[in-house]
From TrEMBL, chain A:
Belongs to the binding-protein-dependent transport system permease family. FecCD subfamily. Keywords: Cell membrane, Membrane, Transmembrane, Transmembrane helix, Transport. Pfam families: FecCD. It comes from Alloyangia sp. H15. Its main location: membrane. InterPro entries: ABC_BtuC-like (IPR037294), ABC_transptr_permease_BtuC (IPR000522). This is Iron ABC transporter permease.
From TrEMBL, chain B:
Keywords: Cell membrane, Membrane, Transmembrane, Transmembrane helix, Transport. This is Iron ABC transporter permease. It comes from Alloyangia sp. H15. It comes from the Bacteria. It is a multi-pass membrane protein. Its main location: membrane. Belongs to the binding-protein-dependent transport system permease family. FecCD subfamily. GO terms for molecular function: transmembrane transporter activity.
C-alpha cells in the first residue's frame, strides 16, 4: 500500500523529498562501510584500519603501514573503481538498448576484451600495444557484433536475440581465449585465475588506471544522461526531440566497451556487476539518468567493496576472487529478473 | 498419417535418406581411420591395419589398441548422443535454437561432476557419469518447471535455460577457485571438453547406457513426427502427449548429460548436428534422428582428430574447436531463422 500512496500525485513531492536525502545517504553509508570492511580484512590479521593514519602522517615505516599502503589500499580502490565503471557501463547499455537485461558480461564484451588481452600475450607483433587498448578494441568489436546479430542497428532489439547474440559472441570469444592458452602452456593457470575476475595482485598503477577510467565513465555518463533519458521515450520520440537514437547507441556502446575493456585488462571479466547495479539504482532513484549516474556509481563502488571484503572473508585457505563473489550474487539475480518478465512483452 | 507428418514437418525427398546415411557412414569410417592414424605420432595406415587385424608385420598395439581406438570410438559415440539429443530437444521445444547447452543441461552436468570430483575424490572416476546424469536431469527439470512446464513458450524457456546455466556456471567457477590441490588441472581439461586420456574404461562405463538410450530414441522417432502436429491434432490421433513428451525429453537430457559426464563440455554439436541433418534429409524424424546421430558422431570424432593433429605436440580440446565453429554457426542461425516467418517453428 505504501508505495502506491507514495506514487500518488498528492504525496509525490513529500516522498521524493524524503528519498532525495535518504538515498544518497544510504548509498554513501553502504560505500563507506564496504570500504572500511574491505580495508580491514586481508591475509594479515595484524593490519587494521588504524594503519591508515600512517599514510597521512607520512610515516609509512612499519610493515603494517606498508602493507596497507601497497596492498590493501590499491585493492580496495580497484574494487570501488571497478564497481563504478561496470555499473555505469551497464546503465548506459541498458538505456541505449532499452533492454533491462543488457550488461557488459551478457553482451559478450567481457569475453571479447579478454580475447584482446590473450591476443596481446600470444601474438608477438602485438606485444608492444597496451593491454587496455587491445581489450577496449576487441570489446568494441564484440559489442558491435552482438548488436548486429540482435538487430540493434535496424532499431528493433528483442531481449531474447540480444542475449542469444551475446551468448554466441561470448562463447566464440571464450573458445578463442581457451585456444590461446592451450597454445601457450604456462599461461593456463594464470589465465584461469584471471578469467574469473581476480584483483588479488593489483598495485597502485592499476588502481590509478581504473580511477582515470572511472572519471571518464562518470563524465561520459553525465554528458550522455539527457540523451539516455530521451532513449527511454522510444525511437520516434527521441528523434523528434532532436537526439539521433543511432548516434546515442553508438556513443553509448563505445563508452561502455572502452570502460569495460580497461576493467577486463586489470581484473579479468567480472560478470553481472553491470547488470545488478543499475537495477538497484533504478529501484532506489527512479528513471532519470541525471540522478541515476551518481547513484549507480556509488552503488557500484559499494557493491564491489562489499564483494571484495566477502572474497577475503571466505573461510578456508583459498581466497575466492571477487568476480566469483559477484557471479554468485549476480547469476541468481539474472534468473529472478528473467522469471519476473513473465507476462510482459519482450521488447 | 505418415503423409500428414511429412507435409507438416519436412519437404525433402525421403528416398534420399538411405544414400545420405550410407555416405555419412562412410564419412564416419574415414574419420575413425584418420583418428587411428593421426596424432602426436603418425602411424602409417598399413601398420594400423596390421594392428587392428592382429596380423604379422609392424604393429603399434599400445598406441592403436590401447589409446586411439577407444578414444576415437568414444568421441563418435558421445558425438552421436549429443546430435541425437539436440534433435530431440529441438523438436520437442519447437525451437531451432534450442540445444543441450542453451537449456542448461551442460552446465548442470558440469557442476554436478565437479561437485562429485571435489567431495568424493576417490570414487569420482566411477561416479562421474551418474553425477553428470543427475546434474543434467536436475538442471533440465528446473528449467522446465521454471519456464512454465509444457506451455512451451520458446522465448521464455530459452531465457530461463540461459539463466539457470549462468547460475550453474557461477557454481562451477566457485568450485574451481576454492580448490587449490593437484586435482585442479583435470577438471579444467574436462570443462573444455576433451577426450584426452579417455580409454576403454570410460567407453565401457557409458556405452551400454548411451546405446540403450539411442536405440530407444530411434524406436520412438516416429512418435516425434506426431508430436510435431501440435497438441490438438496429436491428441486426436490418440497420442498420450504428456507422457511421451516427458519420456522423450528425459531421453534427450540423459543422452546429453551422460556424454558431458564422460568427455566434458563439448558444446554446439547438439545444436549443429540436427540442422545439418535437416538440410540433408528433411524434417521427418525417422530419417532425421539417425542422420543427426551420424552427423554428430562425425563432428565430434572429427574435432577430436583435428585437435590432436593440427599442432602436434600440443593438443587442442575438441570442445574448443566445436565452439570455434559452433558459435558462428549459431550466429548464422540466429540471423537467418528470425527472418523466416514463424521463426520458432
Amino acid at each position: 500500500m505504501r508505495p502506491l500512496a507514495l506514487r500518488g500525485v498528492p504525496g509525490r513531492s513529500g516522498g521524493a523529498g524524503w528519498r532525495r536525502l535518504a538515498v544518497p545517504a544510504l548509498a554513501l553509508a553502504t560505500v563507506a562501510a564496504g570500504c572500511a570492511l574491505s580495508l580491514a580484512t586481508g591475509g594479515r590479521s595484524d593490519v587494521g584500519l588504524s594503519d591508515l593514519s600512517g599514510l597521512f602522517s607520512g610515516a609509512g615505516a612499519t610493515l603494517a603501514e606498508q602493507t596497507m599502503r601497497d596492498i590493501r589500499l590499491p585493492r580496495t580502490l580497484c574494487a570501488m573503481f571497478l564497481g563504478i565503471n561496470l555499473g555505469l557501463a551497464g546503465l548506459i547499455l541498458q538505456a541505449v538498448t532499452r533492454n533491462a537485461l543488457a550488461a557488459p558480461g551478457l553482451l559478450g564484451i567481457n569475453q571479447g576484451a579478454a580475447l584482446g588481452i590473450v591476443l596481446g600475450l600470444v601474438v608477438p607483433a602485438l606485444s608492444g600495444v597496451p593491454q587496455s587498448l587491445l581489450a577496449a578494441l576487441c570489446g568494441l568489436v564484440s559489442v558491435a557484433a552482438t548488436f548486429a546479430i540482435s538487430g540493434a542497428f535496424s532499431g528493433r532489439i528483442e531481449s531474447l536475440r540480444l542475449i542469444l547474440g551475446g551468448v554466441a559472441v561470448g562463447a566464440l570469444g571464450f573458445a578463442a581465449v581457451r585456444l590461446g592458452y592451450t597454445l601457450e602452456d604456462d599461461l593456463a593457470r594464470q589465465v584461469v585465475r584471471w578469467t574469473v575476475g581476480d584483483i588479488g595482485g593489483v598495485r597502485m598503477p592499476e588502481a590509478l588506471r581504473l580511477g582515470a577510467t572511472a572519471l571518464f565513465a562518470t563524465l561520459a555518463a553525465v554528458a550522455l544522461a539527457q540523451r539516455l533519458n530521451l532513449m527511454a521515450l522510444g525511437q520516434a520520440a527521441s528523434h523528434g526531440l532532436g537526439a539521433d537514437p543511432m548516434r546515442t547507441l553508438i556513443l553509448g556502446a563505445g563508452v561502455a566497451s572502452v570502460v569495460t575493456g580497461v576493467c577486463v585488462s586489470v581484473a579479468g571479466p567480472i560478470a553481472f556487476a553491470g547488470l545488478i547495479v543499475p537495477h538497484l539504482a533504478k529501484a532506489l532513484a527512479g528513471a532519470d539518468h541525471r540522478r541515476l549516474v551518481p547513484v549507480t556509481a556509488a552503488l557500484g563502488a559499494g557493491l564491489m567493496a562489499w564483494a571484495d571484503a566477502g572474497s577475503k572473508l571466505w573461510p578456508g585457505f583459498a581466497e575466492i576472487p571477487v568476480g566469483v563473489v559477484v557471479s554468485a550474487i549476480g547469476a541468481p539475480w539474472f534468473l529472478v529478473s528473467v522469471l519476473a518478465r513473465k507476462g510482459r512483452s519482450h521488447g | 498419417m505418415a503423409e500428414v507428418s511429412m507435409a507438416q514437418a519436412g519437404s525433402r525427398a525421403p528416398r534420399r535418406t538411405p544414400v545420405v546415411l550410407l555416405a555419412l557412414g562412410a564419412c564416419l569410417v574415414a574419420v575413425l581411420a584418420l583418428g587411428l592414424c593421426l596424432g602426436a605420432v603418425r602411424v602409417p595406415p598399413a601398420t594400423v591395419l596390421n594392428t587392428l587385424l592382429g596380423l604379422d608385420g609392424p604393429r603399434q598395439d599400445f598406441i592403436i589398441l590401447g589409446s586411439r581406438l577407444p578414444r576415437t570410438l568414444l568421441a563418435a559415440l558421445t558425438g552421436a548422443s549429443l546430435g541425437l539429443s539436440g534433435a530431440i530437444i529441438q523438436s520437442l521445444l519447437r525451437n531451432p535454437l534450442a540445444s543441450p547447452k542453451i537449456v542448461g543441461i551442460n552446465s548442470g552436468a558440469a557442476f554436478a561432476v565437479l561437485l562429485c570430483a571435489f567431495l568424493l575424490p576417490d570414487a569420482a572416476a566411477r561416479l562421474t557419469p551418474f553425477a553428470a546424469a543427475t546434474g543434467g536431469v536436475v538442471a533440465g527439470s528446473v528449467v522446465w518447471l521454471m519456464a512454465g512446464r509444457l506451455a512451451l513458450d520458446a522465448t521464455r524457456l530459452t531465457l530461463v535455460g540461459i539463466a539457470v546455466g549462468f547460475v550453474m556456471e557461477a557454481g562451477v567457477e566457485f568450485l574451481l577457485v576454492t580448490q587449490t590441490g593437484p586435482e585442479f588441472s583435470a577438471p579444467l581439461v574436462w570443462l573444455t571438453g576433451s577426450l584426452w586420456g579417455r580409454g576403454w574404461t570410460h567407453l565401457a562405463s557409458v556405452a551400454p547406457a548411451l546405446g540403450g538410450l539411442m536405440a530407444l530414441a530411434l524406436l520412438m522417432s516416429f512418435r516425434l513426427d506426431l508430436q510435431y502436429l501440435g497438441p490438438q491434432r496429436a491428441a486426436a490421433l490418440g497420442v498420450r502427449l504428456g507422457l511421451e513428451r516427458g519420456l522423450l525429453l528425459l531421453i534427450g537430457v540423459l543422452l546429453a548429460a551422460l556424454s558431458v559426464g564422460v568427455v566434458g563440455v563439448v558444446g554446439f554439436i547438439g545444436l549443429m548436428a540436427p540442422h545439418i541433418a535437416a538440410r540433408l534429409v528433411g524434417g521427418r524424424h525417422r530419417a532425421l534422428l539417425p542422420t543427426a546421430a551420424l552427423v554428430g558422431a562425425v563432428l565430434c570424432a572429427g574435432a577430436d582428430v583435428a585437435g590432436r593433429s593440427l599442432v602436434p605436440p600440443i593438443e587442442i580440446s575438441a570442445g574448443i574447436l566445436t565452439a570455434l565453429f559452433g558459435a558462428p554457426f549459431f550466429i548464422w542461425l540466429l540471423l537467418t531463422e528470425s527472418r523466416r516467418p514463424g521463426a520458432t517453428r
